[in-house]
Structure formats: structure tokens, C-alpha cells
Amino acid sequence: xxxxxxxxxxxxxxxxxxxxxxxxxxxxxxxxxxxxxxxxxxxxxxxxxxxxxxxxxxxxxxxxxxxxxxxxxxxxxxxxxxxxxxxxxxxxxxxxxxxxxxxx
Length: 104
Prior knowledge:
The protein is of the alpha+beta class. The protein has one domain (3-103). The chain is built from 3 helices and 2 strands; from the N terminus they run ααββα. The mean pLDDT is 77.
């Protein structure tokens, strides 16, 4: 084999490697996008479950309705982000001041 033939073979092998790398990266991006969509769906479901759980408490429902009607200042209802220690997930908790709850 001459030097020219070796050079041509090297270019061919290099181009095949570049194509294989591009295909691999395209598959990785597709997989990552799919994973992010699944995580977003789980996050939305978690938020909905939190709201449903809050709305099962009659005091919370009364406070929410009063605040929505304008009878109670919106500052009575405060959503605060709370990080759980084990998972690091951000959860939201609803706090109602005791004296405000008595007014409602």
C-alpha cells in the first residue's frame, strides 16, 4: 500500500466514525427529550394530586371560596415551596393563619 492509499483509507474510516457519532448523538437527544417529557408529566400529576388533597379539607375549601369571592384578603392563602428532605423534590404547601381561619 502506498501512502496515498493509506491516506484515503484513513479519510474513509474517519468519515464513517463521524457519521456513526452523529447517529449516536441524535439517538441520545431523542432519548433525553422523551425522558424530560415523562418527568414533566409526572410533575404535573404531582401538582394536581397536591391540589386535590388540599381541596379535600373543608376549611381550605371555605378559605379558598371566600378569597375567590373577595371576602377574605388573598394574603390569607399562601402557597410556599417546601423541599422534601429525602428526594429533594419541591412540593407546595398551603398555609392558612389560624386567626384568619377563625374569621372564615
